[in-house]
Amino acid sequence: MPLELRLMRYVIAVAETGSFQGAARRLHMAQPPLSRQIRDLERELGVRLFERHPTRLTEAGHAFVESARQVLRDTEHAVQRARQAGRAETGTVGVGYGPTTAYEEMPKLLTAMSERHPGIRCEVREDRDVDLAAALGEGRLDAVLGRLPPIPPGCETEVLRREPYIVLVADGHRLAGRGAVRLCELRGETFRFVARRVAPRYYDGVLAALHSTGETFEVWENPVTGLRTYQDLRNGGFMLVPCTVSRHLPGGIVALEVLDDLPLIDVELTWRPEAASPALTALVGTAREVACAEGWTR
Question: pTM value?
Answer without folding.
Answer: 0.69
